[in-house]
């Protein structure tokens, strides 16, 4: 027997010993793997129960905002463009100027008409005062004629006065009465156009004031103002363009008070309510900038309903597709100040649905405007102030220097 052969039994004995020890190791390994899977499943269950089930998340969400279209209010030719795309403008800033030659002529005519109306009413007031004085004068004449007649009547009984003279006195009294009646009628006619009003509130002056106000505003509209503060986009107007009222020239986008339109699937809307907090992450900044907001409303319908060609499911050619409903989320302006956004940017929205007791439909309107501007009110108030200056200048006997 060789040395090699003498060693074989001992090696087989070792192999059988190892084989006897392998099953427990495999069982322990299998048990360990099983425990790991169970632990992972438990962690996932706890994560879903306490976190994921209390969140609704979508990446079909975009930044929304107001797009204020700037258009002409009067026809004209563009002579100046004072801003351009990407530039910031403030509310009340002039964006575009139109040729104001014709408007200036009409404004001068309206200014002169207002001054003339004030002077005419002043003249009518003076004429009415003169008519009142004439009434007083004719009444004195009537009183004098009646007194003369009364003095002469006793003389007729004594035949100390001729009847012709007395008749002449009677005729004089009648003429005086007719003169009084004519003077009173003339005074009434003079007072008809001014009675019950001051010069500044006379209907003729008010009409001239309104015409001046319209001409003043029309002249100012040759300068096109920004109604809100924001950034210019989509400028299409060019020098020399002949523009018409309502023609869009550019757009101003306020990058404050933005919102998110998050399009959730219909099966995600079960627990979404108005007032729930939301966290937003944008693609432009990534996870380094987290925005905070809250749900302020749910859309009244799905996107397909408001499309240009809505699906007609009643035809029978229908395939069920999961619909999405836009949910509007207001953003915190403090976050926007730190990390400005642009409308249309992609975002990822996570809504906390822990508290699902809030309303699904928006409450009654609070009558508060969604947006407003005072630019045009200021324009009208300036027109009224200048009209008042013209009235006062001509009311006091002077003249407007404008």
Secondary-structure topology with pairs:
Blueprint: H1 3-50, E1 55-64, E2 68-71, E3 76-81, E4 88-89, E5 94-98, H2 101-157, H3 163-192, H4 203-220, E6 223-225, E7 230-233, E8 242-243, E9 248-253, E10 259-265, E11 277-282, E12 286-298, E13 324-331, H5 333-338, E14 346-352, H6 375-395
Antiparallel strand pairs: 1-10, 1-14, 2-9, 3-5, 3-8, 4-7, 5-6, 7-9, 10-13, 11-12, 11-14, 12-13
Kindly report the average pLDDT value.
81
Distance between the termini: 137 Å
Query: Could you give the order of strands across the largest sheet?
Result: 1-10-13-12-11-14
Uncertain regions spanning at least 5 consecutive residues: 1-11, 398-402
- Percentage of residues assigned to helices: 40-55%
Give the biggest beta sheet.
Answer: 6 strands, antiparallel, barrel
Succession of helices and strands: HEEEEEHHHEEEEEEEEHEH
Helix- and strand-based class? alpha+beta
- CATH class of one domain, named Mainly Alpha
Identify the CATH architecture of one domain: Orthogonal Bundle
Radius of gyration: 46 Å
Strand content: 15-25%
Query: Remind me, CATH topology of one domain?
Result: Helix Hairpins
Task: Tell me how many strands there are.
Answer: 14
Total helical elements:
6
Shape: elongated
């Amino acid at each position: 027997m060789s040395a090699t052969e003498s060693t074989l039994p001992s090696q087989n004995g070792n192999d059988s010993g190892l084989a006897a020890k392998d099953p427990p190791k495999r069982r322990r390994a299998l048990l360990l793997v099983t425990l790991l899977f169970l632990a992972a499943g438990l962690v996932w269950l706890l994560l879903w129960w306490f976190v994921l089930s209390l969140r609704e998340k979508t990446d079909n969400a975009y930044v929304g905002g107001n797009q204020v279209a700037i258009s002409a209010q009067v026809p004209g030719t563009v002579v100046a463009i004072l801003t351009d795309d990407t530039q910031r403008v403030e509310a009340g800033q002039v964006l575009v100027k139109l040729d104001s030659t014709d408007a200036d002529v009409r404004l001068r005519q309206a200014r002169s008409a207002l001054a003339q109306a004030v002077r005419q009413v002043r003249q009518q007031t003076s004429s009415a005062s003169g008519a009142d004085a004439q009434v007083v004068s004719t009444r004195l004449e009537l009183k004098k004629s009646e007194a003369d007649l009364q003095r002469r009547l006793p003389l007729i009984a004594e035949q100390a006065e001729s009847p012709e003279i007395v008749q002449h006195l009677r005729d004089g009294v009648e003429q005086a009465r007719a003169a009084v009646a004519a003077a009173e009628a003339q005074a009434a006619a003079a007072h008809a156009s001014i009675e019950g009003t001051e010069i500044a509130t006379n209907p003729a002056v008010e009409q001239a004031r309104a015409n001046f106000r319209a001409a003043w505003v029309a002249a100012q509209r040759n300068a096109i103002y920004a109604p809100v503060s924001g950034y210019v986009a989509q400028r299409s107007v060019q020098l020399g363009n002949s523009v018409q009222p309502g023609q869009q020239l550019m757009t101003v986008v306020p990058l404050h008070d933005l919102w998110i339109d998050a399009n959730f699937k219909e099966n995600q809307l079960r627990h979404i309510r108005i007032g729930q907090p939301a966290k937003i992450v944008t693609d432009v900044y990534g996870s380094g900038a987290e925005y905070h907001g809250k749900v302020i409303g749910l859309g009244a319908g799905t996107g397909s309903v408001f499309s240009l060609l809505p699906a007609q499911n009643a035809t029978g050619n229908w395939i069920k597709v999961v619909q999405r409903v836009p949910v509007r989320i207001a953003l915190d302006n403090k976050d926007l100040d730190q990390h400005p956004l642009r409308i249309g940017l992609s975002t990822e929205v996570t809504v906390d649905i822990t508290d699902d007791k809030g309303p699904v439909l928006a409450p009654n309107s609070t009558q508060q405007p969604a947006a407003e501007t005072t630019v045009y009110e200021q324009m009208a108030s300036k027109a009224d102030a200048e009209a008042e200056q013209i009235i006062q200048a001509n009311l006091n006997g002077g003249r407007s220097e404008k």
